[in-house]
Design a protein that fits this description.
343 residues; elongated; alpha/beta
Length: 343
């Protein structure tokens, strides 16, 4: 249906056009647009059909003046910009959250805050009411953003349990410790006994939990812990390579290495190749995430699959529930061992 003004030019349909097309009052249309409360099923269907026929689009600015909401959500990544483009996991999460919110007709705003100044500016922007809630990705201990947003009353859901915040903040996480346990058990089952690890950042929940799972399985298998077999990484490819080089120097008899992300594991493969070590004949390599980095590696990586589709969906569900008035919630999702050619 085409709407024209007095000059014959096309104009966008209005709520009045929808009401006239549906044969209901403007107030009924407004109630349908704001959740359908106190509207009969017949009237709701008539309004929805009229919206489809007229092509009416909600004026979000006008609605925000009435509801006090922005009708948008922030996706906040507290990492340097280059990490967003290097690490495939962030893109998968962003795409999943965007799709989950699209079902509710809510746009997602990407916010990158890798420096202290950027975090300060983004926090001011968020607390000024420009978004209704925040999906927080890659929170580090000591990073004040989560606490500042919580204190300001901003609905917030973190990807991974924020260290030191207990039940104060909603979060959705894969079971990092159990995933790490599955990987190290797999390496032990292959007869490996000098198993190294390149950890994630130990100021993040994933870094802490994956290291804990590694240590637990070694202890259960009666394998003596050796700090020379542990190197720190930051989830970047370069840190995986550097960490593996350190392990080879300190423990040249290493026969397996668990690397806390697939991207770092690609770096580990590079270091092993440079050192003349065959994978998996001399050294078995296990990653974590089951990202595109695992499939594109040579050889393809045995890894731990994180259910990113479910993580994205649950983060959006929990955040929308919190915006609707529910209390903070925690969701922990299972991981899965995926065997490929590197072990």
């Amino acid at each position: 249906m085409t709407m024209t003004n007095a000059g014959g030019r096309r104009r966008p349909p209005t709520i009045h056009d929808v009401a006239r097309e549906a044969g209901v009052s403007r107030g009924t249309v407004s109630r349908v647009l704001n959740g359908g409360h106190y509207v009969s099923p017949a009237a709701q269907e008539a309004v929805n059909a009229a919206i489809r026929r007229t092509g009416y689009v909600v004026n979000r600015h006008a609605r925000s003046l009435i509801t006090g909401r922005s009708d948008s959500i922030g996706f906040l990544l507290t990492e340097p910009q280059e990490r967003f483009f290097e690490d495939p996991n962030f893109n998968v999460l962003l795409r999943g959250c965007t799709q989950a919110l699209a079902a509710h007709d809510i746009p997602l705003l990407l916010m990158l805050a890798g420096t202290e100044d950027e975090r300060r500016r983004i926090t001011r922007y968020i607390t000024a009411g420009h978004v209704d809630g925040v999906l927080l990705v890659s929170s580090h201990s000591g990073d004040p953003v989560a606490e500042q947003l919580r204190e300001a009353g901003v609905p917030l859901v973190a990807c991974g349990k924020p260290i030191g915040m207990g039940s104060k903040v909603s979060y959705v996480a894969a079971d990092d410790r159990d995933g790490a346990r599955d990987m190290v058990k797999h390496l032990v089952s292959l007869g490996r006994r000098r198993i190294g690890m390149v950890t994630g950042p130990l100021d993040t929940p994933g870094g802490v939990e994956r290291l804990a799972g590694y240590r637990e399985v070694l202890a259960e298998a009666g394998i003596e812990a050796d700090d020379r077999l542990i190197a720190s990484g930051d989830y970047s490819r370069a840190s995986g390579e550097a960490g593996t080089e350190q392990l080879l120097e300190r423990a040249p008899d290493m026969d397996a290495v668990f690397v806390a992300s697939d991207l770092m594991a690609q770096g580990a493969l590079t270091a092993l190749h440079k050192a003349g070590r065959r994978v998996p004949e001399d050294v078995s390599v296990g990653g974590f995430d089951d990202s595109t980095a695992a499939i594109s590696a040579t050889p393809a990586l045995t890894t731990i699959r994180q259910p990113y589709d479910r993580i994205s969906t649950e983060m959006v569900r929990v955040l929308l529930a919190q915006i609707g008035g529910e209390e903070p919630a925690a969701v922990i999702l299972p991981t899965e061992l995926v065997r490929r050619d590197s072990t």
